[in-house]
Amino acid sequence: MSRRGQLVPWKSAGRITERETSADEVVQTTGWVFNNETGSSLTLEQFVATGDQEVPSYLTIFGLRSPDTETQSMIEIGCGIGRMTCAFTREFGSVIGSDLDAGFLERCHETVSRFGKVDRLETLHVADGRSLDMPPNSVDLAFSYITFQHCDPDDALELTSEAVRVTKPGGKVALNYRGRSRIDTVVLPIGQFVRTLFRIPGFGSWLARRRFFARLGWQANRLTPDEIIGPLSPLLKDVEVWRNPKSKITGYKASIKEFDGINKHHYWIVATPR
Question: In the chain, what are the domains?
Answer without folding.
Answer: 5-273 (3.40.50.150)
